[in-house]
Design goal:
The protein is mainly alpha-helical and 66 residues long. The protein contains 3 helices and no strands. It has a domain of 42 residues. The chain is 58% helix and 0% strand.
């Protein structure tokens, strides 16, 4: 019987931990992606403009590999 109370307590602690992690992720705006890359990849870039991949590579810092 005492093992059952330990398991219930452990499962409640785990559930509360996941709830706190979820609330933290929502408050830190982890789910604020209005226009996701999965949707963006479905549309072709306009003719005469650089693709999104080339633009993102230009904005990223370059590392020297020797």
């Amino acid at each position: 019987m005492s093992a059952m109370f330990i398991m219930i307590g452990a499962s409640l602690v785990l559930a509360i931990g996941f709830l706190v992690a979820f609330i933290w992720s929502v408050k830190s705006k982890q789910y604020e992606d209005d226009y996701t890359p999965s949707v963006r990849m479905l549309f072709d870039p306009k003719p005469g403009t650089e693709s999104n991949l080339e633009q993102s590579n230009q904005n990223s810092p370059q590392t020297d590999k020797k």
